[in-house]
Specification:
By secondary structure, the chain is of the alpha+beta class. Helices cover 25% and strands 34% of the residues. Keywords: Membrane, Transmembrane, Transmembrane helix.
């Protein structure tokens, strides 16, 4: 009879059975399945060298990234330069303001003599306005050059009645100048409604006009003269009648400048 072998018995001796296979060495690394291959690549090569099929794309992306970095640096430099120039200009303006203490000149209309209004005739009008303007320069260290290219216009409602220009002159510091300008119009045709309106205004002794003055000037501070600045004056004036002896009933002038 065959011998029985129990689990607790010791294994048979080498003479009785075939030699068993030695146990594989223990290792933490996984053992590949039969028929597979493990290729080991240096770590530096894995991270630094792209596959051949992606080499062109890698070079393109690297170049684009470098271009973006250069563009960002240029934009930052440009922005820094602009901010520096603005800061320098603001500091210079503040210094000039506190040193010169500039004051805006005052303008007003002193008198108006009117001719050429014949409201009873159907023929076109040729109105004339002799306007005296007062310019008050109250600055201690700033003079004003009034240049060529000025314009003075008188309107009734939206109708331009006459036009002219200011004389060219220099106004020194702490000076008040009265200058008279002759404004003329020709072939002015008023509508029937405008004729009735201006006639009614004259009968009431309150004829309103708008005077618009535009003058290119240069500011002089010491030996420094600025670029041309446009002075804008708009005056609402009301006269009692349309004659050479007219008197101003009311006036209100607004002042502004265009720096460029």
């Amino acid at each position: 009879m065959a011998e029985r072998i129990y689990p607790g018995d010791s294994p048979p001796s080498s003479g009785e059975h075939s030699n068993p296979k030695p146990a594989p060495p223990s290792s933490d690394k996984p053992i590949p399945q039969p028929g597979t291959y493990v290729v080991q690549i240096p770590k530096d090569q894995v991270y630094r060298v792209p596959p051949p099929e992606n080499a062109r794309r890698y070079a393109h992306l690297s170049k684009r990234k470098s271009s973006r970095s250069t563009c960002c640096r240029c934009c930052c430099c440009l922005l820094t330069t602009i901010l520096s120039l603005l800061l320098a200009a603001a500091i210079a303006a503040a210094v000039i303001y506190f040193v010169l203490k500039p004051e805006a000149p005052n303008y007003s209309v002193e008198s108006v003599a009117i001719k050429g209004f014949n409201l009873t005739s159907p023929s076109p009008l040729s109105p004339e306005f002799d306007v005296t303007v007062r310019a008050d320069n109250g600055n201690d260290k700033i003079g004003i050059y009034y240049e060529k290219g000025s314009s003075v216009n008188v309107y009734y409602q939206d109708v331009n009645l006459s036009n002219g220009a200011l004389p060219v002159f220099y106004q020194p510091t702490n000076n008040v100048t009265l200058f008279k300008t002759a404004l003329k119009g020709s072939g002015i045709e008023l509508t029937a409604a405008s004729l009735r309106s201006i006639s009614n205004d004259q009968n009431k002794g309150t004829v309103p006009f708008t005077l618009k003055l535009r003058a290119p000037v240069k500011i002089k501070a010491g030996s420094v003269k600025t670029w041309k600045i446009t002075v804008k004056v708009t005056c609402k004036i009301t006269v009692d009648k349309l004659t050479a002896a007219s008197k101003i009933v009311s006036k209100d002038c607004d002042y502004g400048v265009d720096l460029w």
